[in-house]
Specification:
Elements lengths: L24 E5 L7 H10 L4 E10 L6 E11 L2 H8 L4 E2 L6 E6 L3 H22 L1
């Protein structure tokens, strides 16, 4: 009988990829009210951006129920290169309108919560000092 050597067991390697997916999302304000999702997608595509989605923000008229575009949009991009090119729209005329669009990275819920918490602390400190 030949002796059987058990195979060596190697420890599992930690994953090499980032478990949290990178998000490439931009928040646009001061977008022309006549703009559509297609207009925004086209403008970003012309700049060389790979757009995965465009979301527009609407208000609803309480009396008529009609939706009105607020001039705010979110643009999701496929990669870092598209994200950086999209940021180049900031403070530039957008879609032929004379208004300059604001373009910023979209904040996560955690980032927004931190901003609110920090603001509450600052306000509490100001109130305490004013007494």
């Amino acid at each position: 009988l030949k002796s059987h050597t058990p195979p060596k067991v190697q420890a599992a390697k930690p994953p090499t990829h980032n478990p949290i997916p990178q998000r490439f999302s931009l928040h646009l304000t001061k977008v022309p009210y006549k703009a559509s999702q297609g207009d925004i997608r086209f403008a970003f595509g012309e700049k060389g951006c790979n757009v995965t989605s465009v979301r527009l923000v609407y208000d609803r008229d309480q009396k008529t129920g009609e939706r009105h575009f607020r001039g705010v949009a979110f643009v999701d991009l496929a990669d870092q290169n598209s994200f950086e090119k999209g940021l180049e729209f900031h403070n530039k005329s957008f879609l032929g309108d004379g208004r300059r669009v604001n373009v910023r990275p979209t904040r996560t819920k955690t980032e927004l919560s931190d901003i609110v918490r920090n603001t509450e602390v600052k306000v509490a400190n100001l109130i305490a000092r004013s007494k």
